[in-house]
Amino acid sequence: MSRLISIQPSQQDLPAELVVAVGDVLQFAATGGHLRTGTAIELIGILNDSVLGTNGQVLSPLGAPGAVLFRAVEPGPAVLDVVTGDPWQSPVTLTVNVRVE
Amino acid sequence: MTSNPSQLQDALLEISRITARFTHSDEHPDGAQSGDGAVDVNAGCRIMPLPDRLWEKAAKAAMRINPVNAPLQELRFGDTPVLEPMRLTLFVSKYWGPQPKQLSVSFMESTPSDLRSRIVSHLNAWTNTAGAGISFAETAGTGDVRISRGSGGYYSYLGTDIKFIPSNRQTMNLQGFTMSTPESEYKRVIRHEAGHTLGFPHEHMRKALVDRIDPAKAYTYFLRTQGWDQEMVDQQVLAPLGGNSIIGTEPDQDSIMCYQLPGEITFDGQPIRGGLDINATDSAFAALIYPKVLRSTMDNGQANAASSRIDWDPSEDVNV
Ligand SMILES: [Zn+2]
After folding, report:
1. Domains of chain A by range and CATH?
2. Rounded to the nearest whole angstrom, what is the distance from the C-alpha of residue B214 to the centroid of ligand 1?
3. In angstroms, what separates the C-alpha of B227 from chain A's closest C-alpha?
4. What pLDDT, in 10s, does the model give residues B114-134?
5. Which of A80, B110, B232, B285 is 20 to 30 A away from residue B116, measured at CA?
6. Of A11, A65, A91, which is closest to B151 when you measure between CB atoms?
7. Using one digit for the tens of pLDDT, what is the confidence trace for B182-215?
8. What is the CATH number that goes with domain B5-305?
9. Order of strands, edge to edge, in the sheet holding A67-72?
10. Burial status of residue B261 (CB atoms within 10 A of its CB: 0-12, 13-18, 19 or more)
């Protein structure tokens, strides 16, 4: 079974190499990100972290995006950049080394 | 209906003056102090809200009488305002209304009391500095405003939308705020997010400021720094606010609700400065739309009465 792997890069240390399986989806709490190298991972999207309100409508906060999703598509290495912090003042870019098995 | 720009501006200023008198209710309008025999501004009179079904109709009628009555619709002085009633209805759905109000505040994570107090004090800058008639108070229970300091950056839902956020979710995110966060960040970030909770959108989305940004430069810059595609850049910085904005002042790059944007993305190479604290224009506007007019009534223990509604059978509605 594929996994949704939730990662909060500003609150937890990231391993030197993150090992995942084909089909896994990585969800970073982040404002931005992109694939630096490799074809084992693809960027699904950079999304506004929204909720289903009690009024039945999807509600989005005002602010930068809060979720960055990647999917492991084939075995091999990849390097991701994930951006956290305030995108208007002091963005912090973290580099994540991933190996897809 | 008048479209004379100076008449509109004069009328707006007059509203500000009238509101200012009532927000300093220990003084008479002419500046004299209260004394024996003076009219008691704390007595009786209160504004009764209409039943919801009549708001749109009432707004339309008020606008017909005087366009300045358009409730908090963006006032444009350079051209004739085009005001759509449905937009007013949408707008009203985010605005807390003119009655003085206190929003309760709770924290999603275990948070030291000094930090809780400091955060709430900055939410209340809109009340204490700007003189708005809406305030924030910490509760031990589940607050109207629920603050997380976890991942996700800085954000808040807009105005009354916070009422519809599931109670186990935060309505405001203040990633990483601690007692060692600089005071300047408390002012810049927390007061900005509190502004969203009051219903204020982003000032840098005003058309006059958006027009200063070179889209090609912005797409390149945010793709490089954030990985954002063009649609995201459009949404975050290039799509000007529509007619349902609640902002009523001239576009203001020093507003606390304006992000700082780099000169690298503007046509003229000059940055959009962005606000570092609630400024005079923010203060005046907040005090105007959230007046303290009913504060004295609330303080007299009539809060429930002030918020209650008198209604009648719809067949008795008057056509206007
Ligand atoms: Zn904002």
Report:
1. 4-100 (2.60.40)
2. 21
3. 5
4. 999 999 999 999 998 878 889
5. B285
6. A11
7. 999 999 999 999 999 998 888 887 888 889 999 9
8. 3.40.390.10
9. A4-7, A25-29, A67-72, A41-47
10. buried
Q: Which residues of A touch B (CB under 8 A)?
A: 8-11, 29-34, 43, 46, 49, 51-55, 57, 59-66, 68, 81, 83-89, 91
Using CA atoms, how far apart are residues A50 and A34, in angstroms rounded to an integer? 21
Q: Could you report the predicted ipTM of this complex, rounded to two decimals?
A: 0.91
Of B151, B165, B201, the CB nearest to A29: B151
In order along chain B (320 residues), what is the average pLDDT of each group of 10 residues?
42 46 37 34 39 54 40 37 28 73 96 98 91 92 96 88 94 94 96 92 83 95 94 89 60 86 94 91 84 55 44 61
Name the minimum distance, in Å, from the CA of A27 to any CA of chain B.
12
Rounded to a whole number of angstroms, the distance from the CA of B260 to the nearest CA of chain A is 6
Q: Are A65 and B152 spatial neighbours (Cβ–Cβ below 8 Å)?
A: no
Tell me the residue ranges of DSSP E strands in B38-183: 101-107, 134-138, 145-148, 154-156, 172-174
